[in-house]
């Protein structure tokens, strides 16, 4: 009998748990940009061994959510105006390309899944508490993932997932500095789906780009004083 399999599996599970906990707190802004991440403190906070915490931090470095500094350990990746603008432009370029592929390749099942995701998002209450915020965030993420799922490109979807996480961090950070805006994001989502159902690639990509830049403008004003 292989007696090493169980410990190895347990270590992997603990590392995955640590990644999920750290990613969640970074995206929600509970771990602040540029905040020092001390392995022992995180180990005590999560009740997870230091080895798994260190491995999780190293994995999150590759996702761009954590920075590693020689001889100084780890810290949450900082934010900046230039980074946000670059992130948004990159996201627009990659996701519009993925959306064009989805429009060319996606079938009835993809359309049905998208309509279902839109319905769930529009039926999910606007966040007014931590519980509602989590439910809305999940519905919102699901909508954007389903929107692009028809592209059939695993690499494109992997990059889109990474860019979504980075954008989500900025959006959540902005919510800590501002109240709800008069923006009708639900209408933006609905108009985007209408363009997709009409198979109008030019309109759909234009609406998706405008949707992301509208969010970016809100974040710039809230976090960086409109710089």
Task: Kindly report the CATH topology of the largest domain.
Answer: Four Helix Bundle (Hemerythrin (Met), subunit A)
Strand content: under 5%
Q: What is the count of DSSP helices, taking H or I runs of 4+ residues?
A: 9
Which consecutive residue ranges, at least 5 long each, have pLDDT under 50?
1-6
Mind telling me the CATH superfamily name of the largest domain?
GntR ligand-binding domain-like
CATH architecture classification of the largest domain: Up-down Bundle
What is the CATH class of the largest domain?
Mainly Alpha
In total, the number of domains comes to: 2
Q: Report how far the terminal alpha carbons are from each other.
A: 63 Å
Gross morphology: globular
Average of per-residue pLDDT values: 90
- In sequence order, what are the helices and strands, one letter per element? HEHHEEHHHHHH
Strand line-up across the major sheet: 1-3-2
What is the count of β-strands?
Answer: 3
Described by strand count, sense and barrel closure, the largest sheet is: 3 strands, antiparallel
Question: Could you describe the 3D structure shown?
Answer:
This protein is mainly α and 227 residues long. The protein has helices at 5-28, 39-46, 50-62, 81-105, 108-123, 130-149, 154-175, 185-197, 201-223, and strands at 36-37, 66-69, 73-76. It folds into two domains: 8-76, Winged helix-like DNA-binding domain superfamily/Winged helix DNA-binding domain (Arc Repressor Mutant, subunit A, Orthogonal Bundle), CATH 1.10.10.10; 81-224, Four Helix Bundle (Hemerythrin (Met), subunit A) (Up-down Bundle), CATH 1.20.120.530. It is 72% helix and 4% strand. A three-stranded antiparallel sheet has the order 1-3-2. The longest helix is centred in the middle third of the chain and has 25 residues, at 81-105. The chain is globular, with a radius of gyration of 19 Å. It starts with a helix and ends with a helix.
């Amino acid at each position: 009998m292989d007696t090493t399999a169980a410990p190895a599996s347990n270590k992997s599970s603990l590392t995955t748990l640590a990644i999920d906990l750290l990613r969640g707190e970074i995206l929600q802004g509970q771990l602040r940009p540029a905040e020092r991440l001390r392995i022992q403190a995180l180990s005590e906070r999560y009740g997870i061994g230091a080895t798994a915490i260190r491995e999780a931090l190293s994995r999150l470095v590759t996702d761009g959510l954590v920075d590693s500094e020689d001889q100084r350990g780890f810290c949450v990746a900082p934010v900046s105006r230039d980074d946000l603008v670059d992130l948004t432009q990159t996201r627009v370029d990659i996701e519009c390309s993925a959306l064009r592929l989805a429009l060319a390749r996606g079938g009835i099942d993809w359309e049905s899944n998208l309509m279902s995701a839109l319905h769930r998002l529009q039926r999910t209450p606007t966040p007014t508490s931590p519980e509602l915020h989590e439910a809305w965030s999940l519905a919102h993420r699901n909508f954007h993932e389903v929107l692009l799922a028809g592209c059939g490109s695993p690499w494109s979807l992997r990059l889109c997932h990474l860019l979504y996480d980075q954008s989500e961090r900025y959006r959540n950070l902005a919510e800590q500095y501002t109240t709800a805006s008069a923006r009708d994001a639900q209408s933006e989502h609905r108009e985007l789906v209408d363009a997709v159902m009409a198979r109008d690639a030019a309109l759909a990509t234009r609406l998706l780009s405008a949707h992301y830049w509208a969010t970016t403008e809100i974040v710039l004003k809230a976090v960086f004083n409109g710089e």
